[in-house]
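Note to self: the last two entries modelled the partners one at a time, which told us nothing about the interface. This time every component goes in together.
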Amino acid sequence: MSVMKDTGSLTTIFREQGLRVTPQRQAIFRLLEGDDSHPTVESLFDRARAHMPTISLKTVYQTVHDLEALGEVRVLDLGTGSVRVDPNVEDDHHHLLCTVCGRVRDLPVGFAGLHVPIRYRRDFTVDDVQVIFRGRCDHCSDRT
Amino acid sequence: MSVMKDTGSLTTIFREQGLRVTPQRQAIFRLLEGDDSHPTVESLFDRARAHMPTISLKTVYQTVHDLEALGEVRVLDLGTGSVRVDPNVEDDHHHLLCTVCGRVRDLPVGFAGLHVPIRYRRDFTVDDVQVIFRGRCDHCSDRT
DNA sequence: TTGCTTGTCGACAAGCGTTGTTGTTAGTGT
DNA sequence: ACACTAACAACAACGCTTGTCGACAAGCAA
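The predicted structure of the combined assembly is written out below.
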């Protein structure tokens, strides 16, 4: 399960786009590298602040949006109140969302069987399909 | 495509649950009856206010939540910024969301093919599947 | 290096959709 | 008609996200 380009590659990509690579952005790159927990922006902010106390939440949002514009992450709204950053843009996948603890897990499945019948597709162009499985992970099922 | 119970039935159901049926609630019942536009709470509020100028937004939210608790509507978060009320709780269906005009249309399809493979289902209990097809309706495709 | 240009930073405040609070009004079963 | 109590409208506050802006620093050229 591939995750994300390394900090060096992202640095190059940003520079190529005329975007500057600041210590703040590198810190965020490093946090996302190898992170499959679908963190919220706030949690990225908290972790970044641990090593860089002056970084602002706005900066994290901005960097995440830049990464999204470059196609290096996906920003998901799973209806949990805050958006989540998904560094896995390579593999098509759905999401398993635990409605208790909020953890999100990837479900590496193609869209086989998820076709829009022709008569409904006729006057609609599908660009993207988002599938969210809501339920409970075993950890949360146990204690209820 | 069935939609929603009529105002009279909802009145009975509410009373049975110990909930009171006020003119405000009846007005909202009437608005939802035969509405397949997946309105936002705000738009329900605007329409209700046309005939009942003193009704408050909070009341609309409360009534919608009560209806949801009774299983008479579904409250959807499609990532459009505000939640939408779906009066169609009878038929399993997906949603076609136009990312330009925001209109939502039902897609009456079963979940055939939308299975979670066993090895991923092993430690997760799926309660609900939400499928959102994002794209453009023809009306919005034309003018771009 | 040096200096210039321009994008980015952090601080602050505002925007949005939604929910909590509170005193008052009004639906409900008797 | 009565008493009980849920629901009401008005207001303020909340959480998440974004706008504004002066100060700053990265990048580039010489």
